[in-house]
Amino acid sequence: MSFNWADYLRFAESLVSTPSSPGPEEAALRAAISRAYYAAFCSARNLAESRGEMTRARRSTDHRLVIDHFQDAPEFVRQQIGADLSRLRRFRNNADYDDRLKDTPLTVAQLSVSIAHGILTALGSL
To answer: What domains sit in the chain, N to C, each tagged with a CATH number?
Structure first.
């Protein structure tokens, strides 16, 4: 059975709603940012692959391939998916690698979850 990548978004939501429960709080919020990105990225990647629109290289370059695939599409909804994936990837990279975030972790986590929801909704409309 295939993993349902949208489950990562549900997990991210639970981390955002009670970040001190699994704690430490900032670590939980950073994990939520990362999981929200992967929910959206893997869902987008799998949709494009299942339709024969792209083939992944199974490398770190896949992130750019998927984002470009959607950003370069002629349809606005796909372009928006690509732009939102790019934004989420930036948030995820910051959460995973930077010692300090520009905004509060809660703000970025909430925004990441919201953007990921929008991407999954848009993917469902394609």
So the answer is: 6-125 (1.20.120)
